[in-house]
Amino acid sequence: MYAEVLKSHNGKAEISILCTDDAEKGLHCGACNAGSRLKGRETVLADNSIGADAGDFVAVAIKEHGELKAALMLFIIPLLSFLSAIAVANAYTLSLWLSFLCGLAALSVALAALHLILKKKTYYFIAGIK
């Protein structure tokens, strides 16, 4: 997949992924139009180890096992925190609704913590300058 570098700083680059009909003819993840056929641009953060500058068109790839790691962090960890909070609240013989509220509180804390921790994390990297 291809992208345009918008900003480059501290070994990272803010890139705008090009999602057009031409991109679908080659290797394309399809994430930009999953669930709809709208065309447009998605802006993401990518590792910039090759030193691409603003305005460069680059080839972008996803790191090995990136989707699996992202799914683990964004779905499994919050789900486990929710379920473990319900189990702990149930062990203290709280009512069903109080257990559920404890689970929601743990879920909210887990999602907020992940948002803060993963703010600058990326699984994209710039593979080459086009």
Automatic annotation (TrEMBL):
Name of the protein in question: Sigma E positive regulator RseC/MucC
Record keywords, A-Z: Membrane, Transmembrane, Transmembrane helix
A matching Pfam family: RseC_MucC
Transmembrane is among the record's keywords: yes
Parts of the chain that traverse the membrane: 71-92, 98-118
Taxonomic source organism: Chlorobium limicola
